[in-house]
Amino acid sequence: MPDGVFDLRQMTNHFSQSIVGDDINLTDYCAGYKELSTFMYFIMRDVNQKLGILSDLRNPEKHPTDFCEHFSTVQKMCTFEANQYENNKLKSNSNATMGSRNLLRLHRAFLFIIDLFERVCSDPPEVTLSQLARTAYDESLAKYHPWAIQKACDLAFRALPYRQTFISNLVAMQALDGDLTTEETCRKYLIETSIPILRKVYQITQDIYAQNDMLDLP
What we know:
two-stranded antiparallel sheet; globular; ceramide 1-phosphate transfer activity; Glycolipid_transfer_prot_dom; ceramide 1-phosphate binding
């Protein structure tokens, strides 16, 4: 079951605010991901740990202000950490901070989440949530996972609720005094507002990693 309350509009706003030109603000990105994790609980393995690592790197109580600034945006972080790697492998003498590596895992899962939301909104109603998740996984995350994790994910997908239950849970979590109180309004908001914003955040992040040759970090 979902852990906590998922505010669809707040999640979308966090990710929208994270877009700073051709860069992504990490505080807003992580806030959006944290909100997202309360609903997409079934694929959020180790998410809180990764978000915690990124938060610690930006924590002025743990690091000097100029150090924290390196982790304020995706571009600054990748630029700062790029010399810690060679051919996408950590240098043996490098004092690794691992921000880019942890964000990359979140970034890969982000595409799965976007694809699943899109399929839930658009695919024929007879297709089950398990089938939608399996297809989205095969087209996004599967290539990064060893066989054992793929099998574990397959078992997790088989245990997913009915698609209608998934949708009903999403609707039930929205504010009663807001405008996202029906399946149709939530679906329309996802298709017209949320998904385009999430895809833009994904693409900007993807481009930054590609520019820094960091898409295949170990």
